[in-house]
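The data are quoted verbatim for completeness:
=====
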Amino acid sequence: MGFGTLFVGYILLFNPFSWYTDLFACLLMALGLTKLVPFEERFRRVLIADLFAAIPAAVSFVFTMLSMFGSSFGDFYMTNINPALRAMTFLYFTLELLIAIDRIAVATDIGALRLPAMRNRIFTAIYYALYVFANLSFDTGSLIGRIVIYSMLPALLVGLVVHFLNAKLIFSCYMWICPEGDEEMERCESRIGIINRIQKKTDAMEEEFARRRGEEENAKLRARIEKKRRKKK
């Protein structure tokens, strides 16, 4: 459906080399979103938001490439403009994505996806506010400058948690949502290796959980039968 490609693209957004990878992440997510638009119209707005985010991502990519050759042409943009622009565009994209997931969860009657979709909107807004603050340029000798420096680690940790929660939600959509009529079909392998590996581990965990749950239910049933026998005696 497109959730697998969207998942891989979203994973690329959070890494130490985002100036290099943001553009490729946006293009990869766009490929997945084009496949999702026919199933839920709200994904069209997500696609537009993604393409909008790709514009500053392309600019930062070009300036980063220029800096590798000794150019300082984009230093002001990368230091003072890019962090806020990146935060605004990806905040808009992520909120639209979570709303679209909520819509498709309602359409497919998968209520377990709705709460994470609504909860993650709040966490995402908090993270990008921290992200912008942690990237502000102030004199490190001033009070506000020291606060900005101390906020970098919390912003990084919050970002790690938020991106994990959002990625987990997207992967859950990949696992649980399929086109109408394909509910009983065997799951096809993805062209992306990491998706297949995660899928196999998740399936193994679900099978182990089902086995243990079955054993617990059988144990409870045997206990109830034994209790009834004792009462009869």
In short: The CA atoms of residues 16 and 156 lie 10 Å apart.
